[in-house]
């Protein structure tokens, strides 16, 4: 269980590579990186969006398939080509008038470090790098791309009384 007052959480921000997809990326013959997705992560993301939790994606990548995947699940804030993620994080906070303690961020590697040092609830997958594990409040028992997103969303929605709470839970 996440050792944080999850009632404070108004937004969850995810990195993609190594968090919502595995850390291994196949390359398409045309050079496009091909990422994996986890169906249970997808279900939890779309439910969280329906239940009014702000979900954001911040990735250094820039592929149409990532954008389509997460906007298709209802994510309004998909930030691509984030070379310095802390700047995008600050813009996201300002856009929704959020504070650091209202943010759960899940990352797995050094580009996530600055945000994770600042946000209220830094979390990571089981296979995150040591520096990220060291600063995380919660380390999921799931690896990146293997349901770690579902793990944290489910915990947050349960605390908010929004997991399996109404008809929204039973469809896509």
Structural notes for this entry:
Belongs to the KdsC family. The protein is α/β, with parallel strands linked by helices. Helices cover 33% and strands 15% of the residues. The chain is built from six helices and eight strands. The chain has helices at residues 39-50, 64-72, 85-96, 113-118, 130-135, 148-159; strands at residues 11-14, 26-27, 33-34, 54-58, 77-79, 103-106, 121-124, 138-139. Helix 2 (64-72) links the parallel strand 4 (54-58) and strand 5. The mean pLDDT is 94.
The low-pLDDT segments are none
Largest sheet: 6 strands, parallel
Fraction of residues in helix: 25-40%
What's the N-to-C terminus distance?
Answer: 26 Å
Structural class computed from helices and strand pairing: alpha/beta
The strand count comes to 8
How many DSSP helices? 6
Radius of gyration: 15 Å
Reading the helices and strands in chain order gives: EEEHEHEHEHEHEH
Question: What amount of the residues lies in strands?
Answer: 15-25%
Placed side by side, the strands forming the largest sheet appear as 5-4-1-6-7-8
What is the residue-averaged pLDDT? 94
The backbone outline, from C-alpha atoms, is: globular
Protein name: HAD hydrolase family protein
Subunit structure: Homotetramer.
Cofactor: Mg(2+)
Pfam families: Hydrolase_3
Give a summary of the structure in a few sentences.
With 172 residues, the protein is of the alpha/beta class. The chain has helices at residues 39-50, 64-72, 85-96, 113-118, 130-135, 148-159, and strands spanning 11-14, 26-27, 33-34, 54-58, 77-79, 103-106, 121-124, 138-139. Strand 7, helix 5 (130-135) and strand 8 form a beta-alpha-beta unit.
